[in-house]
Amino acid sequence: MKSKIHEYQKNNFTLMSNKSIIISLFVLPLFFACKEEKKAHTPFEAADVISIKTATAESLALTNNISASGLVTTENQANYSFKIGGVINHIFVEEGQFFKKGQLLATLDATEIGSGLNQSDLNVKKYERDYTRALNLYKDSVYTLEQLQNTKTALDIAKKQKDAVAFNARYAKIYATADGFVTSKIANEGEVVSVGSPILAINETRQNNNYLLKVGLTDQEWAAVKIGQKATVTLDGYPDESFDASVFRKSQAADAALGSFQVELRLNMKNSKPAVGMFGKAEIKADKAEDFIIIPYNSLIEADGNKAFVFTVENNKVKRQPVTINKFEKDKVSIKDGLQKTDQIVISNSAYLNEQSTIKIIK
Q: What's the whole-model pTM score?
């Protein structure tokens, strides 16, 4: 009897287990179906909504200044030399030394020059005697008029030769024609130099106001710059100072080596005396202001040179708009064309947008 009861309970348990398994098999698909149905009812579009911030494009009148850099020089540069050849006797200045107008800078050995002067003087005295004798003989009717005239001509030639020798002797010494300083000693004492050989390279500095900054500009910048236009210059040698300047000279041909047009700015150096070759930066001020659209820097996308894109908002949709950049200023960008003053510019999440995006504007 007990065994029958046990067998009945066992069979009943097996039956219950099989029913549980069958029920589970029916319940699981129903569960996943409900889950899929719930997911299907979730709006798919909600995942594509991109929150953005916008700002209105601003118009601002800006002076389109020209930035350039170059090296310091002076208005006039020269190579001093002797008019005649000879042996250098003495050079009275060193490289970097300042001098005054009229100061003696160098001399040639005067031995040969002095001999030439004495010879020309003796020659003049001889012809003076010859002329005096010929004049007396002409009065006594011994010399003809032609002989007297020939003697007078010989005397005049001797005097002119003496003047030429004296002139050359004056240029056997080098005197400064203006205030300045020596940039380079090309020859030294004791050297034999030929006619016109450079001895000293100098830069003139009249009243300390003819220092120049020579800068290179593009063809468009060169055309926009006018003589007398104001500028501000900073020099690496004087980092805490800025100097007033003005456009002094414009080259009429491009520099073949640099590929740019050279413009010289006259500097007002106050009491400073910069070295030639010192590096400087110039900001040439524009004559008039122009209107530009100002937008935040982070609104730009795909910037390449002066070309870029921004997103504008129209009828709750974004539009990819090409723009031309004028210049960057800290966290702002001035736009030359492509935008209007009333345009709404996207200033956040621009990288995630395209023209099919659904947007939500947030404050």
A: 0.54
